[in-house]
Amino acid sequence: MNVLSQAWGWLTTSANWSGSDGIPTRFLQHYEYSAEAVLIGALIAFPLGLLTGHVKRGGLLVTSLANVARALPTLGLVVLLVVVMGVKFRAVMIPLVALTVPPILLNTYEGVRNVDPQLTDAAKGMGLRPWQVLWRAEVPAALPLILTGFQFAAVNAVANTAIAAYSSFGGLGRFVIDGLATTDYGMVAGGAFLIVIAAILNLVIFAVLRKLLISPGLRQKKPTT
Amino acid sequence: MISFVQVGKTYPDGTVAVAATDLTADSGRITVLVGPSGSGKTTLLRMVNRMIEPTSGEILIDGVDVRSKSAPELRRGIGYVIQNAGLFPHRTVLANVMTVPRLLGWSKDKARERAMELLTTVGLEESHAKRYPFQLSGGQQQRVGVARALAADPPVLLMDEPFSAVDPVVRKDLQTELLRLQSELSKTILFVTHDIDEAIQLGDKVAVLNTGGVLEQFDTPTELLANPKNEFVESFLGLDRGVRRLSFFSSTGVPLRPEPVVARDAPAAEVLARRGAQPWLLVVDDGHKPLGWLTAEQVPADGDLTKVAVGELVSYGHTFGAATDSLRAALDSAILSPSSRAVGVAEDGRVVGVASVEELVPAIRAAQSASVPDTGHGDRGEPGDRVEPGDRNDREDRDDNPDTV
Ligand SMILES: Nc1ncnc2c1ncn2[C@@H]1O[C@H](COP(=O)(O)OP(=O)(O)OP(=O)(O)O)[C@@H](O)[C@H]1O
Ligand SMILES: [Mg+2]
């Protein structure tokens, strides 16, 4: 109770809502870092997933890569990279990207690979070129799974971007780390609360994306006629 | 015309899917490939649009090697229909049908107009256009598949078991529909099925394939039923091939006698006179529609047929359309009734006359000796089906059709 009211006090202090270390700035920073991690992860994982899914080969490579990335201890890696590379932004980004690669890679690969072979056969048989088969048949049909992969990646990124604060970078983790350092538990709890809000906002964003990108033909179940 | 010249396919694992095969699918005709599972039907079909490349021989469409164009270009000029339609699930029915025209660079408006027109052609309603495939029944999806294949008006259509995933009733509809479409469009159709009945019903010519991709016989359905070349073909055709063949012959030759037909309210004298001459009397109502059979013994002594309840009459089974139905329908009508007599009716349902099984024999004999159907009006369907005017013969007259290439 005490901590909650402290958190409430911290959240409602107007001074905390302005300036280069204010809540809005940190919030945006948090999203920037997360988005960047998802973007870089996607640049690596999406094409690889599309390629392997389309040719239906390389499953072992895909799963091994994903497993390795998943096995990395995020915090340990940050610390290690900071020690090795110094306090560089890359030291934070690499572990975050490692978190975004597996879901995007696996879902894209599995999604595209498992598209109904009758669909790809018909598409090819109608005269679509391989590239067109991929973009006009396989990707749209696999989109629900692919988006889920991106969503997992984003959830991972948003939840873990707090580690950026360990190596003196911004984001919402700042409040938690700094609060702990100064035993300001209101700030710690407030920061944690904001991280939860960021995760929820993330879900909302993906719900909207789903609505916009996924065809109604894939969204609905059997009609009741 | 699709010509297979010594075409063979051996898969890398050594499986011979198609042994060196020569086959010609005539323009504007339905050529059916039939055979047991694994006999290379699909392989043979898919080599035409280069979904599979042959390991020997060549395939020509109207004299041009299919390899003279890039595969995607070739495929845009060939309609392709597969078992579960393979529709784009994320696109509306309309967008699905517009696919190939759009690939070919047609304007959106033109493609849309063409697609709407085709939906009607294949028996769908305009309201279906905006639906997604999951909102259609299997049969409707298959119709969309056919419409999509026809969209750019390709002269050649490849169909791989297009109707085998739907229930028998819908399948029959789709088969009838295909024949109707074909009578209008005269496409060169290569049709794969493992169902010999479907092959017989749809094919202008039927190629029977055996395991190992061996072509056992290539003939018209009637010739196939009459003269199977070997035991394999014979057993594949099944035991009732003789009766089935009769569906290709018209019942015009059946002598229909009006004498045994008597109205229920006919004068007693007439009834008694007829009773003397006929073992069975067919009682008809005042509209001359059949009610049922009566044995001579059942006729009341005073000749008043109204005394006999309709329920006491012996069932006539089913009637057949005199001249419009096939011999098979006539024969079936005869053997179905305990009277062993077939009832022939006119278009309006009025009884024309009756014929006993024995009286059908000469007509059947005539069919036996004919290698080609005498009328060309085989109904290609089950007994009782109507022969649609303009079925086979009409198509033969249409060689100058611009669609026929
Ligand atoms: N990619 C492949 N590699 C090796 N063998 C294959 C391949 N595709 C087909 N075959 C074999 O070739 C033969 C012919 O196959 P095909 O699919 O043409 O038969 P089908 O007559 O269409 O059979 P079904 O009625 O079951 O569809 C079969 O023995 C099959 O196992
Ligand atoms: Mg097959």
From TrEMBL, chain A:
<dbReference type="InterPro" id="IPR035906">
    <property type="entry name" value="MetI-like_sf"/>
</dbReference>
<keyword id="KW-0813">Transport</keyword>
<feature type="transmembrane region" description="Helical">
    <location>
        <begin position="33"/>
        <end position="51"/>
    </location>
</feature>
<comment type="similarity">
    <text>Belongs to the binding-protein-dependent transport system permease family.</text>
</comment>
<feature type="transmembrane region" description="Helical">
    <location>
        <begin position="185"/>
        <end position="209"/>
    </location>
</feature>
<protein>
    <submittedName>
        <fullName>ABC transporter permease subunit</fullName>
    </submittedName>
</protein>
<feature type="domain" description="ABC transmembrane type-1">
    <location>
        <begin position="27"/>
        <end position="206"/>
    </location>
</feature>
<feature type="transmembrane region" description="Helical">
    <location>
        <begin position="71"/>
        <end position="89"/>
    </location>
</feature>
<keyword id="KW-1133">Transmembrane helix</keyword>
<dbReference type="InterPro" id="IPR051204">
    <property type="entry name" value="ABC_transp_perm/SBD"/>
</dbReference>
<dbReference type="InterPro" id="IPR000515">
    <property type="entry name" value="MetI-like"/>
</dbReference>
<keyword id="KW-0812">Transmembrane</keyword>
<dbReference type="Pfam" id="PF00528">
    <property type="entry name" value="BPD_transp_1"/>
</dbReference>
<keyword id="KW-0472">Membrane</keyword>
UniProtKB/TrEMBL annotation, chain B:
<feature type="domain" description="ABC transporter">
    <location>
        <begin position="2"/>
        <end position="237"/>
    </location>
</feature>
<keyword id="KW-0813">Transport</keyword>
<feature type="compositionally biased region" description="Basic and acidic residues">
    <location>
        <begin position="376"/>
        <end position="398"/>
    </location>
</feature>
<protein>
    <submittedName>
        <fullName>ABC transporter ATP-binding protein</fullName>
    </submittedName>
</protein>
<dbReference type="InterPro" id="IPR027417">
    <property type="entry name" value="P-loop_NTPase"/>
</dbReference>
<keyword id="KW-0547">Nucleotide-binding</keyword>
<keyword id="KW-0067">ATP-binding</keyword>
<dbReference type="GO" id="GO:0005524">
    <property type="term" value="F:ATP binding"/>
</dbReference>
<dbReference type="InterPro" id="IPR046342">
    <property type="entry name" value="CBS_dom_sf"/>
</dbReference>
<dbReference type="InterPro" id="IPR017871">
    <property type="entry name" value="ABC_transporter-like_CS"/>
</dbReference>
<feature type="region of interest" description="Disordered">
    <location>
        <begin position="366"/>
        <end position="405"/>
    </location>
</feature>
<dbReference type="InterPro" id="IPR003593">
    <property type="entry name" value="AAA+_ATPase"/>
</dbReference>
<comment type="similarity">
    <text>Belongs to the ABC transporter superfamily.</text>
</comment>
<dbReference type="Pfam" id="PF00005">
    <property type="entry name" value="ABC_tran"/>
</dbReference>
<dbReference type="InterPro" id="IPR003439">
    <property type="entry name" value="ABC_transporter-like_ATP-bd"/>
</dbReference>
